[in-house]
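Reopening: structure tokens for the 5-amino-5-deoxy-1-O-phosphono-D-mannitol complex, inputs below.
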Amino acid sequence: MVHLIEDIRENENVNLDEAVRIALTQVEGTYAIVVISKNHPDSLIAARKGSPLVIGVGAGEYYVASDGAPLVEYTKNVIYLDNEDIAYISLSQGIKIKSINNIERTPYIDQLEMSITQLEKGGFEHFMLKEIYEQPKSIADSMRGRLNVAKEIVSLGGITEYEDKMLNAPRFTMVACGTSWHACLVGEYIFEELVRIPVEVEYASEFRYRDPIINEKDIVIAISQSGETADTLAAIELAKEKGATVIGICNVAGSSIARATHAGSYTHAGPEIGVASTKAFTAQVTLLLLMALSLAKKKGTISRSRYHEIIIALESIPRQIEEVLSHEKLIKEIADRFSNAKNFLYLGRGYNFPVALEGALKLKEISYIHAEGYPAAEMKHGPIALIDEEMPVVVIATNKGTYDKVVSNIQEVKARKGKIIAIVTKGDETVTSLADYVIEIPETEEMLVPLLATVPLQLLSYHIALNRGCNVDQPRNLAKSVTVE
Ligand code: M6R
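Re-run output (same inputs, fresh job):
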């Protein structure tokens, strides 16, 4: 870039500002750059395409960063650059923003909502543990102002304008990556049960490269904690090109995905610093529930009594998570027993299938133990061959409808001497009598179980990773925001 800019400046006889602009019309790919010249030490030129970039505006000073978190210590005033925008920042003349096509726009100053305390460990050993423990609050924050049980109101201001369009859609397509993709899977089950509109869940990376059949009537729901995931962003752009309406569920305000979508709602989980996503997942599921409840009520696909039961149960979730967190000592003992395992299998059915996937992802990313999540009934189609006395099998066995089937799956594992760690509903007897280790979660609606059952699995991964001496908050080879393909 530096050579290209220099070459343009000399050969086209333009100043540095213009040379950077022309250079950016010639490059390919994504970038977030800052250019400074030793001849103009009081000026910066910052530009972005695809990768995030935020400018902090202080008193007589400016900052450039990849997101708001490092800026909050210095200023809460920020300017988000749009794709292919260039900011010319000068101490004497302030900020001027132009597109690479030379169109000027007025800079808009946003306010960062985060505070420094949110970015500190607050007495916890790791951010991940702090974020696991924040879930009662982060879920309550996700519901704040959106759920009013007394008045039986669920309302997501960010999508109200689009609700009719959503209700007339032939289907929803949910796109995301990693943990956010698991939230989409839970969302698929919730939407189909409550709103009775078909849902497809796609990995953003697959969706963007396979010429999907999407048109103007389609609703695409894109989910992302960071709001900067390159594949999800590209999937959104593709859906928009095909005329679909794109609704975002993001955690980071002002992020690229939040700005690229037509409408959406923030999860309000607060900054998530640990690379392993925890509170963002439960907040995403909460948002999907709220969205589905609001749509189902409007569409008339839910009875008043059922609606009431679910919102009452939802309101209790933060308190119930406190109860789950109180089992940490037991979960640590289980972690101590299995920290040397080479493999783990996670099984669940229905709403608990995505929980199994999420449990396995959490374990592998921070402890580097190989783990697989499976729909419990699929075990006999292959993974059962892996089971021997060395194999811990985590079974989420809370389902009402398929409880007996899950019990059979557990018996199949026991017959092969596998070790069962079961997540059960408080008071459970059958699974409890069969399992080697049992973690209880409080009784709730089946569709809300992922909000509770994920928490002990987060703690299990955390303690196993800690026992193995792994860097819990920054596991090897991983980045918090995956801004590249
Ligand atoms: O920021 P996003 O939600 O778009 O990130 C998606 C994935 O990269 C992310 O969930 C990743 O899988 C986490 N490390 C999982 O804990």
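Residues 304-325 form the longest helix (22 residues). The CA atoms of residues 214 and 239 lie 7 Å apart. Marking as resolved unless the reporter disagrees.
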